[in-house]
Amino acid sequence: MITTLTSEERAQLAKILPEWRLAREKDALLRSFEFADFVAAFGFMTRVALLAEKMDHHPEWSNVYNRVEILLTTHDCNGLSARDVTLAQAIDHLLAP
Amino acid sequence: MITTLTSEERAQLAKILPEWRLAREKDALLRSFEFADFVAAFGFMTRVALLAEKMDHHPEWSNVYNRVEILLTTHDCNGLSARDVTLAQAIDHLLAP
């Protein structure tokens, strides 16, 4: 059973996911990305798509030219779960130098 | 120079792009798509991305699992132009049986 993060787990978020912030409109993680152009942005989206499909956990996301916004939440528990944290970390890892 | 559609051209939209509607918040075309699953939705997005890059005209779009929403507008003229109509038709063509 998937449960939402405890307050102890939430307290760790700023440390383990410093680039992500909490969404205001729902219990979710949010990060904005900016790339050189559309090809770079969509190339990144393709890598995230493969990751998401493999993890069977999918983002809510949007793209406008070189910008991508990713929102992570877990519908099964109607809020933020460990699955979102794991996917956010995996996405960060894609961009690690 | 890119210009926004004339009222005569706008009057044709319902006929040539029956699946698209006008956005309320800006001068843009909008269409929602629903697929069997994420793989089908992202596969479609990949085809649209290649099309958009080739036409050098890019959508504002979002995806949540099997749903894709595409908004087309032209920043160079701050509204709906012939480029949006051409891209919308090309997208429709991708889904033609």
Quick structural summary:
Chain A is α+β, with helices and mostly antiparallel strands and 97 residues long. Chain A has three helices and four strands; from the N terminus they run αββαββα.
Written description of the protein model:
Two copies of one chain form a homodimer. The first copy, chain A, is α+β, with helices and mostly antiparallel strands. In chain A, 43% of the residues lie in helices and 20% in strands. Chain A has three helices and four strands; from the N terminus they run αββαββα. The first copy, chain A, has a four-stranded antiparallel β-sheet with strand order 1-2-4-3, with helices on one face. The first copy, chain A, starts with 6 loop residues before the first helix and ends with a helix. Chains A and B meet through helix 2 and strand 3 of A and helix 2 and strand 3 of B. Strand 3 of chain A pairs antiparallel with strand 3 of chain B, so a sheet runs across the interface.
